[in-house]
UniProtKB/TrEMBL annotation:
The lineage of its organism: Bacteria, Candidatus Doudnaibacteriota. This is Small ribosomal subunit protein uS13. Located at the top of the head of the 30S subunit, it contacts several helices of the 16S rRNA. In the 70S ribosome it contacts the 23S rRNA (bridge B1a) and protein L5 of the 50S subunit (bridge B1b), connecting the 2 subunits; these bridges are implicated in subunit movement. Contacts the tRNAs in the A and P-sites. InterPro entries: Rbsml_uS13_C (IPR027437), Ribosomal_uS13 (IPR001892), Ribosomal_uS13-like_H2TH (IPR010979), Ribosomal_uS13_bac-type (IPR019980), Ribosomal_uS13_CS (IPR018269). GO terms for molecular function: rRNA binding; structural constituent of ribosome; tRNA binding. Belongs to the universal ribosomal protein uS13 family. Residues 101-114 have a biased composition (Basic residues). HAMAP family: Ribosomal_uS13. The keyword rRNA-binding applies.
C-alpha cells in the first residue's frame, strides 16, 4: 500500500486520482508530480513499483506543502487575521461567512442549521402538518 505524506492512498484507483487524497494536492498538482517523476498516470496505486513510489514521495515532500505543514500555515494565517483585528478575522472568530456572502438567508453551512425565528423551525416527521 502506497503511503505518501502520512496518507494511505487507495490501492484500486489510478494514481492520478489517488494523489488528491493528500491534503494540499489537487488533480493539477497530481498531474504535475506524475509528469516530473515519469510515472504513468494510468497505473493503479497497487501496481506502482517501490522505486516509483519513492520517486513520487521525494518529489511531493520536496516541492509541495502538504498535510500538517499546510494545515498549520492556514491556521497561523487565520490567527494573524484575528490578532490584527481584520474584518476577515472577526468573521472567522464568529463563525460567519468570510468572503462577502449574504447572511440574511443561505448561510446555514457556515452557521450550522440555526433557525432563529419561532415560525421557521422544521416540523418533525411525527408531527401532523
Amino acid at each position: 500500500m502506497a503511503r505518501i505524506s502520512g496518507v494511505n492512498l487507495p490501492p484500486n484507483k489510478r494514481i492520478e486520482a489517488a494523489l488528491p487524497y493528500i491534503y494540499g494536492l489537487g488533480i493539477s498538482l497530481s498531474r504535475r508530480a506524475l509528469q516530473a517523476t515519469g510515472v504513468d498516470p494510468n497505473k493503479r496505486t497497487k501496481e506502482l513499483s517501490t522505486e516509483e513510489e519513492n520517486k513520487l514521495r521525494v518529489y511531493i515532500e520536496k516541492n509541495f506543502k502538504t498535510e500538517g505543514q499546510l494545515r498549520q500555515e492556514v491556521t497561523m494565517n487565520i490567527k494573524l487575521l484575528k490578532e490584527i483585528g481584520a474584518r476577515r478575522g472577526y468573521r472567522h472568530s464568529r463563525g460567519l461567512p468570510v468572503r462577502g456572502q449574504r447572511t440574511k438567508t443561505n448561510s446555514r453551512t457556515r452557521r450550522g442549521n440555526v433557525r432563529r425565528t419561532m415560525g421557521s423551525g422544521r416540523k418533525t416527521s411525527a408531527e401532523k402538518t
